[in-house]
Design brief:
Blueprint: H1 23-43, E1 50-52, H2 63-66, E2 71-73, H3 75-83, E3 90-95, E4 115-120, E5 123-124, H4 127-136, E6 142-148, H5 149-158, E7 163-170, E8 176-178, H6 182-195, E9 209-215, H7 218-227, E10 233-236, E11 239-244
Length: 257
C-alpha cells in the first residue's frame, strides 16, 4: 500500500501538488521506493508482489519503471486477493498520521479537504489502521509502517509490534526534515518486517464494526450521503455512520464514504 506523504525524500507540501513543477520529483521518489521495496520482498522469498498507487486516486507512479517485477492493483482488487489467500502480509509505504495529529507531516485521513475525523467503533483511526482492520479480517497482518515520526508512533497505537521506519520529522504540518540515513533505516525495517511477518500481531475487531466520518461542513456531509455505495445513517449535521455486522466485511469500500 503506498502514499506520497511519507515517502523518503519528500519534505514539502508543494511536492505532492500535481500542478507543481516539483511533482515529478515526488513521483520519482515514490517509484524508486516501490522498486526498492519490491526487490526486498523478492530477496525475502516473495513469489508475487502487488502495489497499490494510493495517493489521490493514483497516477503517481511511473508504471513503466516498475515493469514486471510487481503487479499494480486497485482497491477493488484487494478483496479477491485476500480471499484467494494470495497475500501474506502488507507493507505501508509513505504513511502519514491521522487527521488532527500534532507534529504530523501532512496529517489527514482519506481527504484533507473534506474529512475532519474518521472513527471505527468510536476510536480515531488513520488510513493505515483502516487498512489493517480490513486485511486482518482475512487473516493478513500489516507488518511495516514507513513514514514520518508521528505516523510511525501512531501505527504502534494500533499494532504495538509493527515494524516502523521513521524517515522524516515534521517541522510544521506542511514541511518536514529528513532523518539521517533514512534509506538504510527503511531497508533494515522492511527486511525485518518481511522476515518475521507471521509473528506480527493483527488489528482484529471482534463483533460489529461501526465506521463514522465527520466532515468539515454540513454540505460536504450531504454530498457524501447522496453518493454512498453502502447504506449508512446521518447521525448529526456533519457525520455519517455505517455498521458492518460481524463477519460481513467483504470490501474495503465498506470502510470509507
Amino acid at each position: 500500500m503506498t502514499d506520497l506523504e511519507g515517502i523518503p525524500g519528500i519534505f514539502d507540501i508543494d511536492e505532492i501538488d500535481r500542478t507543481s513543477k516539483n511533482y515529478a520529483f515526488a513521483r520519482r521518489k515514490l517509484t524508486d521506493h516501490i522498486n526498492c521495496a519490491v526487490a526486498l520482498c523478492k530477496k525475502c522469498g516473495a513469489d508475487d508482489v502487488y502495489y497499490l498507487d494510493g495517493h489521490a486516486g493514483g497516477g503517481n507512479v511511473f508504471e513503466e519503471e516498475i515493469g514486471d517485477c510487481a503487479k499494480k492493483v486497485t482497491v477493488a482488487d484487494l478483496a479477491p486477493l485476500v480471499k484467494e489467500k494470495r497475500i501474506d502480509c502488507v507493507l505501508e509505504l509513505g504513511s502519514h498520521a491521522r487527521a488532527g495529529t500534532m507534529g504530523g507531516f501532512l496529517d489527514h485521513t482519506f481527504n484533507s479537504k473534506r474529512i475532519f475525523e474518521y472513527r471505527i467503533n468510536g476510536l480515531l483511526h488513520s488510513e493505515l489502521s483502516s487498512h489493517a482492520v480490513f486485511f486482518s479480517s482475512f487473516g493478513v497482518p500489516t507488518v511495516l509502517c514507513c513514514g514520518d515520526g508521528a505516523a510511525c508512533a501512531q501505527a504502534k497505537e494500533y499494532i504495538p509490534d509493527i515494524v516502523t521506519a521513521a524517515v522524516k520529522t515534521a517541522k510544521t504540518r506542511n514541511i518536514c526534515t529528513p532523518t539521517e540515513n533514512a534509506q538504510e533505516i527503511f531497508e533494515n525495517a522492511a527486511r525485518e518486517a518481511l522476515l518475521r511477518y507471521d509473528k506480527i500481531s493483527q488489528y482484529k475487531i471482534d463483533g460489529d464494526i461501526t465506521v463514522s466520518v465527520t466532515f468539515y461542513r454540513t454540505d460536504m456531509c450531504e454530498e457524501a450521503l447522496e453518493k454512498v455505495k453502502y447504506p449508512c445513517v446521518r447521525t448529526d449535521a456533519r457525520t455519517l455512520e455505517r455498521v458492518i455486522p460481524q463477519g460481513k466485511l467483504e470490501s474495503f469500500y465498506q470502510l470509507v464514504f
